[in-house]
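Record 1 of the preview.
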Amino acid sequence: MRRKLVVLFLALLMTSTAIVGIFNHRNGTINIASAEGSSGGVNRQSYQPIINYSYVWKKTYNLSMIVLQDGCDKGRAFGTPGERAAAENISTWMQEIGLVNVKRDEINETWKYKDVEDIPDWKWSKVLDRSFTVVALASIGDLNKTRKIDEHWIRLRIYDKNDREIWNTTLMYKENDTSTCFPLLKSPNIRDIEWIDNKKYYVYNQTNLKVTKHRKIFGKYCWLKYADWKDPCNSWGKKLLRSTPLPNFRGFIVVDEFDHTYFMSPSRFDDVSKKTGVISVLEYSRPGYSINGSIGKIIEENLSKGHDVRADIYSKWHYDRVKSYNVIGELRGRDPSNVVDIVCAHYDCWWNQGTVDEAAETALVLGIAKYMKELEEEKGIKPEHTVKFIAFAGEEMGFRGTLDYIKKYVKSGKEVVRYVVNPGNFGHNDSTCTDLDKEDRDFNICVNKDCGYLASVVINISKALKYTEYIESLYGKEHAWGIRPNWQVIGEDAQAFNATRYRKGVIQFSRNPFRGYHRDGNKHTEGDVIETKKPFCGLVNDTFTIESDIVLLTALYLCYEDVI
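->
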């Protein structure tokens, strides 16, 4: 039945007077303009987007450039000035669109064990489900509480075979400037506590560690690991987390695959380790230092020559609370009940432009909101249920914003979530890499399996837009990717709704990995950036336009299902 509805919906796209008013971009009902100032793609095949892509691109650019503003060197990271600046911009844009009840909703809830046990269909066997564990268990504690870094540095020295120092450098975290390494924080341990002016700090200090690529039985050492762009977390993180640390293992270094960037990964399990002591599989037992590939090459070359590489390391941090906000706007539906549909993305990122992850997807959410509001104003057509457009904060730190929202509004019974539409991490062309697995290369439509028909909705919309043929026309059959359903909802805010079962159905759109993922470098001009700077592709208009339309049409189908 639902498949027939999708076919009918697509047929109506060109025939119904009401629906033509919604969708017929080719007749100019909604003004369309190409992206201005972008070199990320050239629309070689002249795809005409349905969504107002100029609007989406400009908002993407605005969010991406926040990291270059004074005082925003940490980008839109959780609880930083850059994240708050982005929240203010998004709130203003929602008001300009004409959404109602627009607000910056402060994250201030506490996620407790009781909240986990109250989850529908809760069973202790779920702790074996990674999707559930990362969301429901790992984020236990005050959702606005995080680690404040005071100092984090590594001093590297190289000695030749005659024990003469031939090279040295110091890489460090800088609060108000560009950092030269990314801190991977050690789990809290009572042995590291130092009280300074009646305030508790966690301090770790080691000197003269031997840098080595292999574990050592004797002698203090610093373990050298490597981040592969195709699997940047698991290429080093799993081995490190699963290994039993020997007493002589004192720290580690993660070398990025690319010369000018370092890889960023959260020490996100802040309170669960403190309150439960369950740290061995969740956090790092020793502090780490993520460094760029050019420094890594120097270390590697000297190790291969038999030179001695030594490291002094220092890490100091404390717990603190931060100000962070979900930004929420509404489009009222015809049904006055408390049932809502949600279109969302997260606007926080790491210390970078954070374009694909996820300035572009946040801008897309705004573009969808603008489209639906214009539909109401110009055609008088409203969605069946109230649609909430949400830019979530704190996703990179363990779905902080999403869990705050779920506890405040959903778990409390104030509203019932029907569908969650969540674009995430697409719009690049790194999927042309044939070294990737097929499921990684494809445009993944991630849905909860008990609502599997949602995947069919998206697949049929994609076929109507001739998505596969279009990608093949851009990159050729050998390098083109396809589209596929995926029953694992992992890595975006939709995961929190799905894992906690506070939804009817979720759809998450993604194409991972991409080269810029969680990367920054060269004064914020490389890594996850909006403009092409090889080896990073930036935001590629050729792919992001059509993929944005797929998300738009999916949201329209679900939110106006009863009209269609």
